[in-house]
Structure prediction request, 780 residues.
Amino acid sequence: MIWKPGDWILKICRGWAEPGVRTMANNGDCGFGSAKRATPRQFEDLPRQEAYRDSRHYRRQSSGTPLAQERRRFAAITDSNIPRRSCKLGSRNLAFAMRLARIFCFAFPVLLMIPLVSTAAETPVIDPANMDPRVKPSDDFYQYANGGWLEHNPIPPEYSRWGAFQELIERNYGALHEILEESATQVAKGEAPAGTVRQLVGQFYASGMNEEQINADGAKPLESDLGKIAQINDRKQLAVVVGYLHKLGIGALFDITGGQDAKDSTNQIAIVSQGGLGLPDRDYYLKEGEAQMRDQYVQHVTKMFQLLGDPEEKASAEAKQVLAFETDLAKASKTRVELRDPEANYHRMSGSDLAKAAPGFDWSAYFQTLGIASEELNKIDVEQPAFFQRAAELTANAPLDDWKLYLRWQLIHATAADLSEAFVDEDFRFFKQKLTGVKEKLPRWKRILQEVDHNLGEALGQLYVEKKFTPEAKQRALAMVNDLKSALRDKIQNLEWMGAETREAALKKLDAFGVKIGYPDKWRDYSDLKITAQPHVLNVLAASEFETKRQLAKIGKPVDRTEWGMSPPTVNAYYSPNRNEIVFPAGILQPPFFNVKADDPVNYGGIGAVIGHEMTHGFDDQGRKFDPEGNLKNWWTTEDEKRFQERGQKIVQQFDSYVAIDNLHVNGQLTEGENIADLGGVKIAYAALEKALGRKSATEQNQKIDEFTPKQRFFLSWAQVWRNNTRRETSRLFLQVDPHSPPKFRVNGPLSNLPEFAQTFAIPDQSSMARPPDERVQIW
Prediction:
């Protein structure tokens, strides 16, 4: 299927969406993040937008999605509240973003919008009541900074996790709800001209809120699509139907998009990658310890086939066949760690070469269905050739009846959250209750709100910016970006382990960084998208098809560097290796990250560390492989590359040693890029703060607030951004699929490497929060 920028994981690294909604195409990965192909790296995997990191998002990741796999470098800050479906249909949004910039995201699942105007002030910015004085800073700084809050803020039943990001999202729902209700009312009165952003947003929301009609329709709106699948009678027609489903944004078998050529960043080519799985990750199909989850998955697929009208015995047999089919795809799929290697996932070839490498699949019929001209297929990046060889073998040899079952499942799996209540409930029962531990669905209006952001992110973003964006926030954020760039420049110039040749190239790349803040200079053109009073699921498919066409239309054309991979209201940030740019949507420019009423230490520990995180993604284990123009090109000397890898291995070993829950450890290889970015982000932000404090009087430099010095408030600010209670089921899932470490270790991990932190809080040697000098990680 195709990836589109919308408003992720997701986590994957794309975020998750809450029960029953699609991930808001945030295009990005998540927490502060990163990914391969030039997947943008998100600050958080919010990929954490407690949005709704849902299995679908992960499914895309596991299937090769940028977000999830981190292969495509989308480094985002979080993985916030996204609708779950976006992982599928919507995942394109996310995926594109990740693709678009191979983005590295910053943080948690918090993709929703929040007012840019500061609303703080009732409570202290650094509230002592949120802390736990029973814990020493030297033993567990995360618990010391957040213990009071963690104890008194249980997870609401409709969420898989609850933290600072989610609190902001909830406070912002009111404003977004108001925008959508106003828009829907104007549509009903005929006051919103067709094709305007107000009409698109209002009609989409109104169709999603028409629960009576949705329940009456059941799966009837899909009869035509189900009929196409049932009528497959040869291998050519099979390829045509796969192409048709991809047009609708349904990721059957593999994924396709149009994006930057990793080794020619000025041009865009077709990109195909592994995909087609229903579970969040290949390991769910292959590991012995996941046998129970596989059984539950079969039960879920069985019930979904029953809802389509199949008798229970037949549905059960069909579900087992679906599992067997997807298991075959999983065996041919790369692991998430393997997907993190940009070079190993880049294989440019022509369309004719692809047909020879993966015979058995009618590539000509497939590309023709998608409307891709033969002259545009002289360059295709086939990211995982071995996967496509196996997929083509299945196309040639698997019985057509097995294919029909699989494609039928893919269609209903992708659209279940937009059908009648029976489908929604069963979809929620497995993907949210079983996989993430969530107890209740979000109210319908919140789920549809998330869908609007996912499918019409820039349309809703225009209405949001009109109400909430302040030029002052943009200017102050830009000033901090410049402060952080200066601090990083100083760090690079004084690195003892880096030679002169590599240092010069690193500085050149830093100087070439692009910066985007707030919202796009040029809004997306939605004039070809028609949202009408038709069944809601058809509006969702129409929006997804629109995005598919938009992405594929890029093939063979120059890169549009004005394009964004996240919507303006998104509470996240990202770095794109292919574009060598850092992006901060309007939604992140507010408390707890950025507070116009707060002192400098709080802002440097919040948005400053976010900025530093995204900058560091340009020089982490993946981002460092891209040059100033965004090309996958090695600019390191052999000696310096070896020194970097040795330091990177130390951070892998550090995080491998952390036990998250039960006997499950953090995956140091999967999270390496994000851990490097967290460490670099805090270190760079602290250096910038020291410069800022140096411009103040001696009294101001040492002025305490609530008994904490400025430097102590800096580290407390960083820690309190990550306060988060997470359900055990969600924690287990994230450990498998999320390129970001759990919140506790995003705080304690980086800080235990910093002498600056140890000095600020008088941390004794041999303490848990002070790593031995020979184990301390120092990179940037």
